[in-house]
C-alpha cells in the first residue's frame, strides 16, 4: 500500500472499492451529522482518506490490536480497518467515539463495508477499560499531553502511539515533556509539508 497526495495505490480492487464506498457514505451522512467540515467534503480523498492511510505503513510486525481514539467519521480508524482487511487480516481495530450519532455512523459504515475486524465503543476514552493495544492512534483529538494520558491507558506494554500533528508539533512536544517521558520519531507527513506523524513509544509519567 502506498499513500501519496495523488491517492492510494498498490491495493486490491476490493480495498479500493471499500475506500470509495466509505467516501460515498461520508458524503451521504455528512449533512445530518457533520462528520467532516463541509469545506473539506470536496477533497475527502486527499485530505482525510490518504492522510489516514499513511499511518497504516507504520503498523509493527505481529500487531494484533489497533485502537483509534475519537474516531469521528472514521479517521484514521475506519481507513485502517479497510487496509487491514487486505494487508493485516489478524488485526482487530477498535474505534472509540463518545458522540452517539457518530458511533452509529461508524457501526453502520463498518457493516455496510463488510468489515468484521471493527469494534465500536460509543463511550468516552477515559471510561473504556484498557484495550491493551499494540497501536493507539488519534487524529485532531487533543494536545499531545492529553493524548499521552489516553495512550498510557490503552496501550499494551511495548505498544506504540501514532499521532498525526501539524506545524506546532515542537511546541506540543516541549509541553508534553514536562509531564511525560517517551521516545519519539518525527515522520514527515506525505500529505502536508508542515505536518508530521509522531511515532511514540516507551511512554511513562515523569
Ligand atoms: C475533531 S474530531 C476528529 C475526528 C477524527 N479523528 C478526524 O480526524 O476527522 C474529534 C472527535 O473525538 C471525539 N471525542 C472527543 N473527546 C472524546 C472522548 N473523551 N472520548 C471519546 N471520543 C471523544 C469527538 O466526539 C469527535 O468526534
Automatic annotation (TrEMBL):
Its main location: cytoplasm. It catalyses: guanosine(527) in 16S rRNA + S-adenosyl-L-methionine = N(7)-methylguanosine(527) in 16S rRNA + S-adenosyl-L-homocysteine. GO terms for molecular function: rRNA (guanine-N7-)-methyltransferase activity. S-adenosyl-L-methionine binds at residues 70, 75, 125-126, 139. It comes from the Bacteria. Its EC number is 2.1.1.170. Pfam families: GidB. GO terms for cellular component: cytosol. NCBIfam families: rsmG_gidB. Specifically methylates the N7 position of guanine in position 527 of 16S rRNA. This is Ribosomal RNA small subunit methyltransferase G.
Amino acid at each position: 500500500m502506498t499513500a501519496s497526495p495523488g491517492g492510494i495505490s498498490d491495493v486490491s480492487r476490493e480495498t479500493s472499492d471499500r475506500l470509495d464506498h466509505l467516501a460515498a457514505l461520508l458524503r451521504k451522512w455528512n449533512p445530518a451529522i457533520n462528520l467532516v467540515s463541509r469545506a473539506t467534503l470536496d477533497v475527502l480523498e486527499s485530505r482525510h482518506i490518504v492522510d489516514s492511510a499513511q499511518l497504516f505503513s507504520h503498523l509493527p510486525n505481529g500487531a494484533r490490536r489497533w485502537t483509534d481514539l475519537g474516531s469521528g467519521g472514521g479517521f484514521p480508524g475506519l481507513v485502517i480497518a479497510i487496509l487491514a482487511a487486505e494487508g493485516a487480516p489478524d488485526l482487530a481495530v477498535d474505534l472509540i467515539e463518545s458522540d452517539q450519532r457518530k458511533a452509529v455512523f461508524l457501526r453502520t459504515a463498518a457493516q455496510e463495508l463488510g468489515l468484521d475486524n471493527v469494534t465500536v465503543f460509543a463511550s468516552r476514552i477515559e471510561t473504556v477499560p484498557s484495550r491493551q493495544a499494540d497501536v493507539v492512534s488519534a487524529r485532531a483529538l487533543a494536545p499531545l499531553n492529553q493524548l499521552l494520558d489516553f495512550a498510557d491507558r490503552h496501550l499494551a506494554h511495548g505498544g506504540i502511539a501514532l499521532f498525526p500533528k501539524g506545524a506546532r508539533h515542537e511546541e506540543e512536544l516541549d509541553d508534553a515533556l514536562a509531564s511525560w517521558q517517551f521516545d519519539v520519531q518525527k515522520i514527515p507527513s506525505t500529505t502536508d509539508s508542515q505536518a508530521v506523524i509522531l511515532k511514540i513509544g516507551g511512554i511513562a509519567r515523569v
